[in-house]
Amino acid sequence: QVLLVESGGRLVQAGGSLRLRCAASGRTFSFSSYGMGWFRQAPGKEREFVASISASGVNIDYANSVKGRFTISRDNAEKMVYLQMDSLKPEDTARYYCAADFRPTRSPYDYDYWGQGTRVTVSS
């Protein structure tokens, strides 16, 4: 059983920053073997890719809409993945999810495990 728990979402003004956290656990879950992704879903919209990081942390990918503003990182010893979000815009408002898969991609359909999400609201 794999459990992913996101936290850190809240209401923030445009131009502000947030740091989202995703804590992974599970008796048989080898966190350091899994790539991790962050996705988001705004009301009435499909879930979209935000960022991903490989198991080793070497390979990182960002959606164009967040490149230069968001930074994904991970701590394999603590089984944590982070999303530092700077220069936030109202269009970043969404529920943010972390997900795990051996080979992280941009497609949400490729991920095996998901958290429940954390809500981010950016006011203008």
Shape: globular
Elements, N to C (H/E): EEEEEEEEEEE
Q: How many beta-strand runs?
A: 11
Low-confidence parts lasting 5 or more residues at pLDDT below 50?
A: none
Largest sheet: 7 strands, mixed
The structure class reads mainly beta
**What fraction strand?**
over 45%
Distance between the termini: 40 Å
Q: From the alpha-carbon coordinates, what is the Rg to the nearest angstrom? A: 13 Å
Structural features, described:
This protein has 124 residues and is an all-beta fold. The chain has strands at residues 3-7, 11-13, 18-25, 35-41, 48-53, 60-62, 70-75, 80-85, 94-101, 113-114, 118-123. A hairpin with a 6-residue loop joins strand 5 (48-53) and strand 6. The termini are far apart. The relative contact order is 0.31. The mean pLDDT is 97.
How is this fold's topology laid out?
Layout: E1 3-7, E2 11-13, E3 18-25, E4 35-41, E5 48-53, E6 60-62, E7 70-75, E8 80-85, E9 94-101, E10 113-114, E11 118-123
Parallel strand pairs: 2-11
Antiparallel strand pairs: 1-3, 3-8, 4-5, 4-9, 5-6, 7-8, 9-10, 9-11
Core attributes:
single chain; 124 residues; mainly beta; seven-stranded mixed β-sheet; four-stranded antiparallel β-sheet
Summary of the model, kept short:
This protein is mainly β and 124 residues long. Helices cover 0% and strands 48% of the residues.
